[in-house]
Amino acid sequence: MMESIQARTKLANGVEMPFFGLGVYQADEGKEVVDAVKVALKAGYRSIDTASFYKNEEGVGQAIRESNVPREELFVTTKVWNDEQGYDETLAAFERSRKRLGLDVIDLYLIHWPMKGKYLDTWRALETLYKEEKVRAIGVSNFNVHHLEAVMEISNINPMVDQVEFHPFLTQAPLREFCRQHEIQVEAWRPLTKGVIFTHPVVQSLAQSYGKTPAQIVLRWNLQHRVVTIPKSVRAERIRENADIFDFQLCEEDMGKLDALNENRRLGQDPDSFSR
């Protein structure tokens, strides 16, 4: 049983990554993101997920500095955006992100989307950053199996993480199995479906049964699938509430009830047809 917000998964290279963290997509740069990150760190979060596209890396860095949490306890992720991809472009984009965050080393650097004609060169840049010890781990986001296979054909280092849309409406079973076989840690974005799933009768029933909120039920389901989970919020009470999921465990039957909600239904874009 995952009993603590401090629980970590060991990536393929031995680096330990928290199973639970804060996503800051759409958190405004400045006070909003600074306050959100500070609340999260005070509540025990140790993983923060941002991206150059989010335009709030400076605020994340400021919050980290002002929180006085030891750097070695933190796990900071950022991502290279689509118009920054390519070998040289990615190396330059990384330096911009690193400067905005105010960090010497980034814990995890991801390719945000598989830009056709570019993502393989982008991956080579990530390998360079890893070899130069500027990043502790490298991975991808929104990669389907065939994208992962293409990277693995040309890589010296396989992706260590694949951050994808994952929730009970989109359980991604084939992708998760592929990642399991190749020691790629799956990470979930939009784990709470922007609240769409909260009114589903199954989720409502389980929330009542366990004395938890619908969000807590769904987040617990994520973790029990051993998927790294980074719900986003800028509201202090919600940030704390989301983390209150380590004092209960869904039984196997109830996990199955949530698994059965799968419709292969995306609420975000499909990596094979995204328009960015």
UniProtKB/TrEMBL annotation:
Q: Where is the NADP-dependent oxidoreductase domain?
A: 31-263
Pfam families documented for this protein:
Aldo_ket_red
UniProt-listed SUPFAM superfamilies: NAD(P)-linked oxidoreductase (SSF51430)
Binding of substrate occurs at: 112
Which residues are tagged with the site Lowers pKa of active site Tyr?
A: 79
Which family, according to the similarity comment?
Belongs to the aldo/keto reductase family.
Keywords (alphabetical) are: NADP, Oxidoreductase
Give an example GO molecular function: oxidoreductase activity, acting on the CH-OH group of donors, NAD or NADP as acceptor
Q: Which PANTHER family match?
A: 2,5-DIKETO-D-GLUCONIC ACID REDUCTASE, NADP-DEPENDENT OXIDOREDUCTASE DOMAIN-CONTAINING PROTEIN
Signal peptide interval: none
Q: What is this protein called?
A: Aldo/keto reductase
Q: Which residues form the active site?
A: 54 (proton donor)
Q: Which organism is it from?
A: Shouchella lonarensis
